[in-house]
Design brief:
heterodimer; A: 335 residues; mainly alpha; ABC transporter involved in vitamin B12 uptake, BtuC; B: 255 residues; alpha/beta; Rossmann fold; six-stranded mixed beta sheet; 33% helix; globular; transport (chain A); ABC_transptr_permease_BtuC (chain A); transmembrane helix (chain A); transmembrane (chain A)
C-alpha cells in the first residue's frame, strides 16, 4: 500500500493534494475517450480528434456528440454522485459501511420512480417522484433515528438498514402487481441502466456544486470523523454540519438514481478504496471520489454495452461483479 | 486570558435531584481538581462547563458571556477539552490527530501551514510522542493515546483547560510530567480544571478542589480546607490513612 501512496505522491497527510487529483483526472479523461471511441462502430482516435475540433464525418459526429458523449457524461456524473454520497454518509456515521443504499435513500428513490411508472407517468414526473422518494426516505430515517433524543451513528445506521429493507419489500410488491408488459423496463431500471439517461447537465452541475461545497467544509468533516463531541469541542457546529451532509448526500443520491436507476457498490467501494490509498483527509477524498467514481462507472458502462453487443447489460450488474471481489480483496489485504 | 464562571449551575444527571447549585469562577492561574466517586457527575460537569451538554438550571459564562450564545468556534479558541473516552472512526496518524487542534484557528478556506505543523510537532515532543508521528492512532497503547489527546489540546492552545482524568492510563513518570505540564499552563496565566481519581495528585498539584457527591451535593474551596481525611472518607465511603511526604498530604486507603 505504501508503494501506491508514494506513486500518488501521498506520503504524509495533507501535503500534495494536487498530484493524486491530477492522476485521477487524467484517468477520467482516458476513460471518457475510450467510452466515446468504443461501440458497435469504432471511432478511431484521429476521427475523435477531428470531431472534437469541429470537423469529421457527419456519421461520426452524430455517433460521438449525440449518442455516446451524453451517455458517457451521464455515467461519469452518476458514478461521481454515488461515490461522493457514499463518502459523505461514511463521515456522517463514522462508519465505512454506510452508503446511500444501506441507508435506504436509493430504496426510497426506486419506490418513487416505480410508483410513477406504475401510474403511467413518464419523463420528468418519474424523476420528480424518485427525488421525492429519496427525500422522504431521508426524513424518515433521520426523523425516526432522532426519536426521543440520542442520535447515535449506530442507531442511524440501523434505522437506515431497516427502512431500506422496507423499501425492498415495497419494490417487490410493486413488481408483483405490475402488468407484465411493464416489467422489463422496471426491472432494468432497478438494476441500474444508463440507456435511459437523458441530459448529463443537471447531474454534472450538482456534482461540481457539491465538490465546491466540500472544499471549505473539508476540514470540519475531518474533525467530525473523529466523533461529534470531539468535533464540537474543536469548534464545529455539529448539528448544522450533519444536516448539511445528510441533505447533500440525499440530493446526490436522488439525482444519481433518477439518472440511471439503482447502481450499487460505487458508493461503498470507491471511497473505501481511495481511503486505503490516499488516507483520510476529506479535502482530498471527496474530489477524488467524484473523479474515481465517475471513471469507474464510465468504464463499467462501456463494458456493459460492448461485452455482449449488440445486447446491453444493466451497468449495476457490472459494478457489482467488479465491486464485490475488489472490495473483499482489499478488505482481506488491509487487515 | 479567559475566565469561566458557573452561575447557579445544576448539571443534568438523569434521575437525580438538583443537589447543590454550583457558583464558582475558574480564574487565570488556578488549577482546580474535581473529586468524587464513580457516577458523581464529574464528566457531566466537565461537558456542561464546555457547553457540550445543556445544564438543568443556571448558566456557564465565558468572559462574562453565556456559553450558549457563543459560536462553537469562539468557544473552542478559548477552551480545550481532554476527553476521557475516545473513539476513532477512520484511521489517522498521530501527526494528523495533533494537527486537528488547529481547527478553530483556521478559516474554512485555509490549509494547515508550516506554523501549524510546528505547533503540533512541538506539542507532540512535549508529550513525548513525537517519535510516533507517522503511526496510526489505533495502533497506540492506552497511555500513548492519552498523551496524544493532551498534545492535541496543547496544539489547540486554549486559555482554559478542562481535562477529564488526564492521567488515565499513564505510567508514574508520565503522570507527573502531565501534571507538571498543566501546572505550567496555569503558571503562564491559563486556567485548568481536571477530574481526578488520585487524591494524592490533587493534593500535590491542585490549588482548589471541588468535591462532588453522588446525590448532587457539592462543596469547593482552597485545597487545604477541602482535603480533610474525614470529608474524603465520607466522599468515597472508604477509610483512609494519612501521612505527609514532601510537605504534601498522602492518602492511602486502609482495609
Amino acid at each position: 500500500m505504501h508503494i501506491v501512496r508514494h506513486a500518488l505522491g501521498v506520503t504524509g497527510s495533507h501535503r500534495g493534494l494536487g498530484r493524486p487529483i491530477g492522476v485521477l483526472a487524467l484517468a477520467a479523461l482516458a476513460a471518457l475517450t475510450l467510452a466515446v471511441g468504443i461501440g458497435s462502430v469504432a471511432v478511431s482516435p484521429g476521427e475523435l480528434w477531428a470531431v472534437a475540433t469541429g470537423q469529421g464525418e457527419p456519421l461520426s459526429r452524430t455517433l460521438v456528440l449525440e449518442l455516446r458523449l451524453p451517455r458517457a457524461l451521464s455515467a461519469f456524473a452518476t458514478g461521481g454522485l454515488l461515490a461522493l454520497a457514499g463518502a459523505l454518509m461514511q463521515v456522517l456515521l463514522r462508519n465505512p459501511l454506510a452508503d446511500p443504499y444501506v441507508l435506504g435513500l436509493s430504496g426510497g428513490a426506486a419506490v418513487g420512480a416505480l410508483a410513477a411508472m406504475l401510474a403511467g407517468l413518464g419523463g420528468a414526473l418519474i424523476t420528480g417522484s424518485a427525488f421525492a422518494g429519496a427525500l422522504l426516505s431521508t426524513l424518515l430515517v433521520f426523523g425516526l433515528a432522532h426519536g426521543t433524543g440520542s442520535w447515535t451513528p449506530a442507531r442511524l445506521l440501523l434505522t437506515g438498514v431497516v427502512v431500506a429493507a422496507g423499501w425492498g419489500a415495497v419494490v417487490t410488491l410493486m413488481l408483483a402487481v405490475s402488468p407484465v408488459e411493464r416489467l422489463p423496463g422496471m426491472l432494468y431500471w432497478l438494476m441500474g441502466d444508463l440507456a435511459y439517461a437523458r441530459s448529463p447537465l443537471l447531474p454534472s452541475m450538482l456534482l461540481v456544486g457539491v465538490c465546491l461545497l466540500a472544499i471549505p467544509l473539508g476540514r470540519s468533516l475531518n474533525v467530525l470523523a473523529r466523533g461529534a463531541l470531539q468535533a464540537a469541542a474543536l469548534g464545529v457546529a455539529v448539528r448544522p454540519l450533519e444536516w448539511t451532509i445528510y441533505l447533500a448526500a440525499s440530493a446526490l443520491t436522488a439525482m444519481a438514481v433518477t439518472t440511471a436507476g439503482s447502481i450499487g457498490f460505487v458508493g461503498l467501494v470507491v471511497p473505501h478504496m481511495l481511503r486505503l490509498v490516499l488516507g483520510n483527509d476529506q479535502r482530498l477524498i471527496l474530489p477524488a471520489c467524484a473523479l474515481a467514481g465517475g471513471t469507474l462507472l464510465v468504464l463499467a458502462d462501456t463494458l456493459a454495452r460492448t461485452i455482449i453487443a449488440p445486447e446491453q447489460l444493466p451497468v449495476g450488474v457490472i459494478t457489482a461483479l467488479l465491486g464485490v471481489p475488489t472490495f473483499l480483496y482489499l478488505l482481506y489485504r488491509s487487515r | 486570558m479567559s475566565r469561566l464562571e458557573a452561575c447557579e449551575l445544576v448539571i443534568d444527571v438523569p434521575g437525580r435531584g438538583d443537589g447543590r447549585a454550583l457558583t464558582l469562577s475558574l480564574e487565570p492561574g488556578q488549577v482546580w481538581g474535581v473529586l468524587g466517586p464513580n457516577g458523581a457527575g464529574k464528566t457531566t460537569l466537565l461537558h456542561t462547563l464546555a457547553g457540550l451538554r445543556a445544564p438543568r438550571r443556571g448558566t456557564v459564562r465565558l468572559d462574562g458571556e453565556p456559553l450558549a450564545a457563543l459560536s462553537r468556534r469562539r468557544v473552542a479558541r478559548a477552551l480545550g477539552l481532554v476527553f476521557q473516552e475516545r473513539h476513532d472512526g477512520f484511521p489517522a496518524t498521530v501527526r494528523e490527530t495533533a494537527l486537528i487542534g488547529r481547527h478553530p484557528w483556521l478559516s474554512p478556506w485555509q490549509m494547515e501551514g508550516g506554523e501549524d505543523v510546528q505547533l503540533a510537532e512541538a506539542a507532540l515532543a512535549r508529550l513525548d510522542v513525537a517519535h510516533l508521528g507517522e503511526r496510526l492512532v489505533n495502533t497506540l497503547s492506552g497511555g500513548e493515546r492519552q498523551r496524544l489527546a493532551i498534545a492535541t489540546v496543547l496544539t489547540q492552545g486554549p486559555a482554559i483547560w478542562l481535562a477529564d482524568e488526564p492521567t488515565n492510563h499513564l505510567d508514574l513518570h508520565h503522570q507527573t510530567a502531565v501534571m507538571a505540564l498543566l501546572a505550567e499552563q496555569a503558571a503562564e496565566g491559563r486556567a485548568v480544571l481536571m477530574c481526578l481519581h488520585d487524591l494524592n495528585l490533587a493534593a500535590r498539584w491542585c490549588d482548589r478542589v471541588l468535591l462532588l457527591y453522588p446525590d448532587g451535593e457539592a462543596c469547593w474551596g482552597p485545597r487545604d480546607t477541602m482535603l480533610v481525611p474525614s470529608v474524603l472518607e465520607r466522599l468515597y465511603g472508604q477509610r483512609l490513612a494519612t501521612t505527609t511526604v514532601d510537605g504534601a498530604p498522602v492518602f492511602v486507603p486502609v482495609r
